[in-house]
Amino acid sequence: MDKIKLKRKIFKLSNFITFKRKMYFLILYMILEPISLIFFGALYFNNFNLNETFLKLATYSNDVIDAYIIIALFFGSFKFIFIDYWNK
User: Per the UniProt record, which residue ranges are transmembrane (predicted)?
Assistant: First the structure.
């Protein structure tokens, strides 16, 4: 009986660690993905002034905050859901 209880505790702990890892990766993608897109946008516009590039990218959505939220949510959640990085 003790071995079964011990296995259950270990299993619950490993599930919690896996969940915690998933949350860390989600937050990481939400932060890093827009930064990388802005950098590649700078390459696209042939301009390495990142503030200017971000403003150019934001003109398509009429607001800087909307652009950041759209980029962060869409690309970050897409990678988080469809790519299984946390198990590798």
Answer: 23-45, 65-86
